[in-house]
Amino acid sequence: MWETRKVYHTKDQLLEGLSKRTGRSILHVLDDNELRTFINYVDKSLMINKSVIEKDRWTIWKAVK
Fold it and tell me: How far from 43 is each of 19, 27, 37, 39, 59, CA to CA, in Å?
């Protein structure tokens, strides 16, 4: 199941959110240099400047006895 976390209307908004590590605990593991490298990679990977939809994947479990 997918849940929309946030919609970024421009690539710059996404890059700013990444640089602030907002809502992404995995980004807190990176040091500042690693984070800059990651942001540069995302910047170069997204060639067009249009909306980016950030989604989280959830797994639903159902137990039956």
Answer: 12, 16, 10, 6, 30
Place of tokens 């640089």: 19
Which residues of the chain fall short of a pLDDT of 50?
Answer: none
pLDDT of residue 21: 86
23 Rama class: left (phi>0) / alpha (psi -120 to 50) / beta: left
- The pLDDT of residue 15: 93
